TrEMBL record:
It holds the Pfam family RPT. It comes from the Eukaryota. CDD domains: Peptidase_C19J. PROSITE patterns: USP_1, USP_3. Residues 758-792 form a coiled coil. This is ubiquitinyl hydrolase 1. It catalyses: Thiol-dependent hydrolysis of ester, thioester, amide, peptide and isopeptide bonds formed by the C-terminal Gly of ubiquitin (a 76-residue protein attached to proteins as an intracellular targeting signal). The lineage of its organism: Eukaryota, Fungi, Fungi incertae sedis, Mucoromycota, Mucoromycotina. Its EC number is 3.4.19.12. Keywords: Coiled coil, Hydrolase, Protease, Thiol protease, Ubl conjugation pathway. Residues 367-869 form the USP domain.
Length: 891
């Protein structure tokens, strides 16, 4: 149990800093408030101690357990005592009643009160805080005037009680508390910029001294460093230490560069000075003659010649700190152990340069992609394809794999049943060469982010049919725009106008329509939302890209003109067998039909309470096909004869509501694992696992029965179907146990008002409480049963681990079915590091960010990529390796 302080903020209307060259507010404490030195925006914060004291909480906790378990209630039904959970629940209800204006006295001898709240010194003090006073066995409610005057105080007590209750609730208590985080509101009032400080993280002292958090953008950290230097120039060594720590913690090229530049300007940090002094076994605060230092340096170099550069660096730090001309001159005559080409460079600038290059090459931060107009999903896809080694190597060396459609013997081919002629091959080759150019830049650029070519995005986002339709639409609009008067005044007929208009190429016209389609009547992109028209744009874009790459590639194998093998199909495509079993309507014989087909991805539905394996089981295992062959049912099962090296799984979140005829996005949390095993879906195991599949089917049926019981009691569906719309059940959509307890509370009030019917009321109250306990026990029992069943299902195939696949990429969509923003997480196996690719911003993230429960959020996975574990090193390279320049390697 912890004590909570309340924070009261008084501020102007929230806004970002408007000062010139200020990236964000820079606050200073001014006696009783905080003020930005740039725009004078002011915030006053008051910290209020809790009204429910820690001492009172301690006394309550000393006499009550947090909650009572189901086993305790069953084994000791006559010893049901108040718990912290019931005490805070009762006190919270009394507080809410007072705030709403319902003031009633409380009988201290009431059995229900003794069971829930208890009557002891601590509980009496808790009621006194609310304004109740114990007189003649009754807690007398405070007056209306008291409640009016102390309403703010009661509201604070209500918030504290709600937080205390949340901290001690039993796992089976499904009563939702109205508690929400204040962080978003505080961030809004303080003026936190989500672009500069996108996510919260652990508060490291280094970043705290700059007034920010570890996930702040590099530009912001450098700006804050420069600001504190202006305001505290005498502490430059301390703040340089902070900058060095920040650069080492984040392994940022930009921060490492800033450190090197500061050193080249003659700045050093306290830690560097201390380490330099320790290197020569001298005390930092003791003056040592420069000649003695040079002798100590020569001794060190003589004893450790292989560490000459290290000792020289330490001596350089002391020279800078002392501003010693003698040591400067000595260092110039004592060159570092490097390639002679660098002797022409200034000694200090050289070491800064060397440090930047080596650290940059060792860090290898992936390059971001700028958003060139609602293309966040396209950027995610490009980054993903760049990490796939077979695809990247093929594209970078495309000349060795590309079609030669100008060969006299070349004949059109088919891809997915679509005929690909010379025109389409040329179009596809243009796309692939643009893609190669992008990949080369991603691998070799020194910039933090680059922009894809507009033509690359245009070709990926619109297929050939879209191009033709767009061109036709553009041509029609161009002709229609010619006024009637202009036509009459011209001697050129309409046909000639059309001929002239057609001189513009289809692609030019389509590009204009593309710009119109993706920008007209849309809100401008912001850092929180980048709008698109369709949630399915990503999947259409992916199909377009893979089709264009295939069209440009020479086939590895063809069958009847169909390109059945190439790099794309070898990488993404597997082979499945669809087994359809049904009874013939005429002969009544059982028929089994098997159809083999290729697949490039799997689809799982996003449904609450289901994990990835549940979705895959639904996809592969027995499913009933209704209205098959004259209305009879058929059973459909799918097995896999060949799994692809890269397994792509679509989480189907866009769904259709038949009741409203609207499309919506399901934000259900889908749990997925770092490594999944696909043996249960393999064709080789189909027959041997039949019994296990049947067991899982039965367990899932049991699970659904228990879920229905819980749903009936929690969501109270029976009350929703009441024909009498004036009934209690219809009026109050609350869980059954809560509804029963609320009814008992109402009867308790009536009993206090009508003491002559106390016996009947008490009997009814006890009956309602008994029913409420039984309902909660049913919820608990079903919850436990579901946990047991889930464990059985999870462990059913635990011994099958041959077909192992490791997670590589997780694509996120934030928003609704018709708009949103996209980004992707990708895993770098050699460093065990996850990277977040959010357009131009590429940052490291903790693994927990990917696997956290996203319930209640619109940002959730919609596309998962797994790679075959045994081949993962050959399949993916998330962080592209860069070679150190040759001149450095010779040093």
């Amino acid at each position: 149990m912890t004590c909570h302080y309340g924070i009261e903020l008084l501020a102007e209307t929230p806004r970002f800093c408007t000062a010139n060259q200020y990236q964000t507010h820079h606050y200073h404490y001014k006696t009783d408030h905080y003020q930005c030195c740039g725009c004078s925006y002011t915030i006053q914060a008051t910290f209020n101690p809790p009204l429910v004291s820690l001492d009172l909480l301690g006394r309550l906790a000393a006499t009550r357990p947090n909650y009572q378990t189901l086993a305790d209630r069953i084994s000791q039904p006559d010893k049901i005592l108040p718990t912290l959970e019931t005490t805070f629940t009762a006190a919270l209800q009394f507080t809410k009643d007072l705030i709403k204006g319902s003031r009633r006295d409380i009988n201290s001898r009431n059995v229900n009160l003794e069971i829930k709240l208890g009557v002891d010194p601590a509980s009496i003090e808790l009621l006194n805080l609310l304004g109740f006073e114990l007189k003649d066995s009754f807690f007398i409610a405070p007056s209306e005037a008291y409640v009016t005057v102390n309403k703010d105080r009661l509201l604070r007590i209500q918030h504290e009680l709600a937080l205390f209750l949340e901290s001690c609730r039993s796992p089976t208590n499904n009563t939702a508390l109205d508690i929400s985080s204040a962080n978003p509101l505080i961030a809004e009032w303080v003026g936190v910029n989500e672009i500069l400080e996108p996510t919260t993280g652990r508060q490291v002292e280094t970043f705290r001294l700059f007034g920010t958090i570890p996930t702040a953008k590099d530009d912001l950290v450098i700006w804050l460093y420069q600001m504190v230097l202006k305001e505290h120039p005498n502490d430059s060594a301390m703040y340089l230490d902070c900058l060095i720590d920040a650069a080492n913690l984040s392994r940022s090229n930009l921060l490492l560069t800033e450190v090197a530049l500061e050193r080249s300007r003659g700045k050093v940090g306290y830690k560097e000075i201390r380490e330099a002094c320790e290197n020569f076994d001298i005390k930092q605060d003791v003056a040592v003659d420069d000649r003695l230092l040079t002798e100590l340096y020569r001794i060190k170099v003589s004893d450790e010649p292989h560490n000459k550069n290290k000792h020289r660096d330490h001596l350089k730090v002391i020279a800078i700190a002392r501003r010693s001309e003698a040591l400067y001159d000595f260092l110039k005559d004592e060159p570092p152990k490097v390639h002679k080409v660098f002797l022409l460079l200034d000694v200090f600038l050289f070491f800064s340069f060397l440090e930047i290059v080596i650290k940059r090459e060792s860090v290898c931060i992936p390059v971001g992609l700028n958003n060139i107009g609602n293309t966040c999903y396209f950027n995610s896809l490009l980054q993903y394809y760049f990490t796939l080694l077979p695809l990247r190597k093929t594209v970078l060396n495309i000349d060795s794999y590309v079609e030669n459609e100008d060969d006299p013997n070349w004949v059109p081919k088919k891809i997915g049943g679509i005929t690909v002629d010379q025109h389409e091959v040329r179009r596809a080759k243009k796309f692939v060469y643009l893609l190669r150019s992008l990949f080369i830049n991603l691998q070799n650029t020194s910039q933090r982010a680059i922009s894809p070519e507009y033509d690359l995005a245009y070709m990926a986002l619109l297929n050939e049919k879209d191009v033709e339709e767009a061109a036709a639409e553009a041509a029609a609009e161009a002709v229609a725009s010619v006024s009637a008067s202009a036509v009459e005044a011209s001697s050129t007929p309409i046909e000639s106008l059309q001929t002239i208009d057609q001189q513009n190429t289809k692609e030019k016209e389509a590009k204009e329509v593309y710009k119109f389609h993706y920008n007209k009547n849309l809100n401008p992109p912001t850092h929180t939302h980048i709008y698109i028209y369709l949630y399915s744009c990503f999947l259409e874009c992916m199909d377009n890209v893979t089709y264009l790459i295939e069209a440009a590639l020479k086939p590895v194998e063809t069958q009847d003109g169909e390109q059945v093998r190439d790099m794309v199909r070898d990488l993404f495509y597997g082979k499945a067998r669809q087994i359809l079993t049904y009874q013939d309507t005429q002969t009544s014989q059982n028929i089994k039909k098997i159809k083999e087909e290729e697949f490039s991805h799997l689809i799982v539905d996003a449904a609450q309470g289901k994990d990835l394996y549940d979705g895959l089981d639904e996809y592969f295992f027995a499913d009933q096909v209704e209205n098959f062959q004259g209305g009879r049912e058929a059973t459909r099962e799918v097995t896999v004869s060949t799994f692809p090296p890269v397994l792509q799984i679509i989480v189907q979140r866009v769904q259709f509501d038949r009741a409203t005829a609207n499309v919506y996005k399901s934000n259900a949390f889908i749990q997925f694992e770092k490594i999944i095993y696909l043996d249960r879906y393999a064709d080789r195991n189909f027959d041997s696992l039949a019994e296990k599949r049947a067991e899982v089917t039965n367990w899932r049926k049991e699970e659904e029965i228990h879920k229905a019981k819980i749903d009936e009691l929690i969501n109270n569906k029976a009350s929703k179907s009441c024909e009498n719309k004036g009934s209690l059940g219809y009026a109050y959509q609350i869980p059954v146990p809560d509804m029963l307890e609320a009814t008992a509370n109402i009867l308790e009030i009536q009993m206090a008002q009508q003491p002559q019917n106390a016996e009947q009321h008490e009997a009814a109250i006890q009956f309602l409480l008994k029913e409420a306990r039984e309902a909660r026990e049913t919820i608990q029992e079903s919850t436990c049963a579901i946990e047991v069943l889930r464990s059985k299902i999870k462990n059913q195939y635990s011994s099958l681990t041959k077909d192992a696949y490791r997670i590589h990429a997780v694509f996120i969509h934030q928003g609704q079915a018709n708009y949103g923003h996209y980004w992707v997480y990708m895993y770098d196996k050699p460093t065990d590091q996850w990277w977040k690719y959010n357009d131009s911003h590429v940052t490291k993230v903790e693994e927990a960010e990917l696997f956290r429960d996203t319930s209640g959020s619109t940002a959730n996975p919609y596309f998962l990529v797994y790679v075959r574990e045994e081949d993962s090193d050959a399949l993916v390279e998330t962080v592209a390796k860069k070679e150190i320049p040759h001149v450095l390697s010779a040093a």
